[in-house]
Design a protein that fits this description.
- The protein has 10 helices and 2 strands, in the order H-H-H-E-E-H-H-H-H-H-H-H.
- By secondary structure, the chain is mainly alpha-helical.
- It folds into 2 domains: 81 residues, Orthogonal Bundle (Arc Repressor Mutant, subunit A); 152 residues, GntR ligand-binding domain-like (Four Helix Bundle (Hemerythrin (Met), subunit A), Up-down Bundle), CATH 1.20.120.
- The protein has a two-stranded antiparallel sheet.
- Strand 1 and strand 2 form a beta hairpin.
- It starts with 20 loop residues before the first helix and ends with a helix.
């Protein structure tokens, strides 16, 4: 097995075919770092060594290192290679999409959204420009059109909340929502749990009514009502998902 540069030990193994080799490669390297086998300051194996050890392409290795750099586990030095970060034990907050397989899994994230998005709606009502109000209402209309096509409207739902976050005039809100990602709207699991098409339509129609109330409060420049409407929407969503999780049973 090839050894990493400067004699640093590694237990990296050749990867078997997987749905996402970049994720797997990054996870394997991260495991070496977090397990202390690649300590802070240690140089990572060269690209060639990782390609041979993991059995992946140069592109996969580079994307994996880039992902680890984004997580704060790795730093790169021009002309010297990649090194384990000095503070690699301080792992940044992240949500693994692979841990979001059921409605029940999404509930904890829904509670996190509740803590953030309620205030975001109030700030949007205070600060939104006319164009941003238009974007919020446009996202609501796009979701209505998707529902009319009998689509689950996951992207449109996310974009509605993203438009509100953008209207806060605080870049941290949309960045946080993008970080959580579209996987926090578990519409596919909902669709599987609700077999009756009529019940599916009624479910999405209720969400649309709640969205409309939020949008109207923002358009009307009413922070208190926007806060109240968003809180009601997310609490209702949590209640709905809990009921569906009970019906859906273990994944």
């Amino acid at each position: 097995m090839p050894k990493p540069g400067n004699g640093a030990p590694t237990l990296l193994r050749r990867l078997r075919p997987a749905r996402n080799l970049t994720d797997r490669a990054a996870a394997d390297i991260a495991a070496e770092i977090r397990g202390g086998r690649l300590p802070p300051g240690a140089r990572l194996p060269t690209e060639q060594e990782m390609m041979a050890t993991l059995g992946v392409s140069r592109t996969v290795v580079r994307e994996a290192v880039s992902a680890l750099r984004a997580e704060g586990l790795v730093v790169t030095r021009q002309g010297s290679g990649a090194f384990v970060a000095a503070d690699a034990t301080r792992v940044p907050f992240r949500i693994d999409p692979e841990a979001m397989g059921t409605i029940a899994d999404a509930l904890n994230v829904m509670e996190l959204r509740l803590a953030i998005e309620v205030e975001a709606a109030a700030l949007a009502a205070e600060r939104a420009t006319p164009a941003q109000v238009g974007a919020v209402m446009g996202a609501h209309a796009a979701m209505a059109a998707a529902i009319a096509r009998e689509d689950t409207a996951v992207n449109e739902d996310f974009l509605f909340h993203r438009a509100i976050a953008s209207a806060t005039a605080n870049a941290q809100f949309p960045q946080f929502l993008e970080f959580l990602g579209r996987h926090v709207i578990p519409r596919q699991r909902v669709r599987a749990a609700i077999a009756n098409p009529k019940e599916q339509r009624e479910y999405l129609a209720r969400i649309q009514r709640e969205h409309l109330r939020i949008g109207q409060a923002i358009k009307g420049r009413d922070p208190a009502d926007a806060r109240k409407a968003m809180r009601a929407h997310l609490l209702n969503s949590i209640t709905r998902y809990r009921r569906l999780a009970e019906r859906d049973g273990p994944a």
